[in-house]
Amino acid sequence: MDEERLPLLKLKDTIFPLVKLRIQNGESALFWFDNWTPFGSLSDHLSNSPSRLGIPPHATVSSLFRNGSWHLPPARTETQVQLQAYLMTITLTEDQDYYEWEINGQVSERFKTGELYAYLCAERADVQWSKAVWFSGGIPRHNFHTWLSVLDRIPTRDRLISWGINVDANCLLCNSMPESRNHLFFSCSFSFQLWSKVASRLEIQPQRGWEDTLNQMNALHLQKSHRLLVLTAWQATAYWLWNERTARLHSNTFRSVDSIFKLLDRQLINKV
Fold first, then answer.
1. Sheet containing 98-103: which strands, arranged edge to edge?
2. What region holds the Reverse transcriptase zinc-binding domain (predicted)?
3. pTM (2 decimals)?
4. In this structure, are 166 and 222 located in the same domain?
5. For the chain, N or C: smaller number of CB within 10 Å?
6. What is the 3-state secondary structure (H, E, C) of the chain?
7. Domain count across the chain
8. Once rounded to an integer, what is the mean pLDDT over residues 140-153?
9. Domain ends where: 121, 152, 174?
């Protein structure tokens, strides 16, 4: 068996309850194995029964419905009584059986990745910083970069060293302190100079520490348009600083604070 299929097989028991086979003519539904009743797989639901009802393993639902009625042996257990009571509520038609997704009681004929992801991950409370990272009107690549930065997942040199990679520890922007997420945003003299220019244009007081800056963005009490501009500019500043750091590492090109500020300013003007 292909190794790629193994993770999917491991999820079978998780996904099976979400895929509902809606009975119409019952011709495509396997009585024992498809998810067509509220009890899930009848093979599992009736597993403790002393009898399998004398129904063949690959019998279809339609094969048990003849002349407008169900043909099943008398019920001998409570679970069999439950099943037969349910069957009395179903009458087969000439339409084709069809599948639906049912996630947390919400039914859909279309697969939605977001809904399934939320179901598999279970509900989690919003983190305090979510509105400062994900907001309507932001620049998607900047939102994503900020999210990685908040989680401390960008490959700064301190992280590379922690992975056992032999690299110079110094910051590529100031070349005087060890590079880390907290240093880049905005303890670094180069990055703080850029952030100060941006903050001055925004008429806010720049914070130098990462946690202080993040808390400041979370606690903004400004008009909606001004708040959106501040958050967009903050994320753009972090993004362009990382862009400059990467360019110095891979292309050996260097831009001044003023040059980066002009790029950032033009981008924000175009966005507005």
1. 19-22, 98-103, 106-108
2. 111-195
3. 0.61
4. yes
5. N
6. CCHHHHHHHHCHHHHHHHEEEECCCCCCCECCCCCCCCCCCHHHHCCCCCCCCCCCCCCECHHHEECCEECCCCCCCHHHHHHHHHHCCCCCCCCCCEEEEEECCEEECCCCHHHHHHHHHCCCCCCCCHHHHCCCCCCHHHHHHHHHHHCCCCCCHHHHHHCCCCCCCECCCCCCCECCHHHHHHHCHHHHHHHHHHHHHHCCCCCCCHHHHHHHHHCCCCCHHHHHHHHHHHHHHHHHHHHHHHHHHHCCCCCCHHHHHHHHHHHHHHHC
7. 2
8. 96
9. 121
Buried b (16+ CB within 10 A) or exposed e, 133-146: beeeebbeebbebb
Of 66, 88, 121, the residue that ends a domain is: 121
Say whether both 54 and 155 belong to one domain: no
Q: What confidence category does residue 27 fall into, taking pLDDT thresholds of 50, 70 and 90?
A: very high
Q: Quick one: 140 and 251 in the same domain? A: yes
Instruction: Report the DSSP pairing between strands 69-70 and 19-22.
Output: unpaired
* pLDDT of residue 138 exceeding 60: yes
CA distance 122 to 87: 33
Tell me, yes or no, whether 137 and 20 share the same domain: no
Same domain flag for 169 and 52: no
Are 29 and 76 contained in the same domain?
Answer: yes
Interval 60-70: pLDDT, tens = 999 999 888 88
The answer, yes or no, to whether residue 4 has pLDDT greater than 50, is no
Structural domain boundaries enclosing 33: 3-121
Indicate whether 115 and 248 sit together in one domain.
no
Same domain membership, residue 192 and residue 149: yes
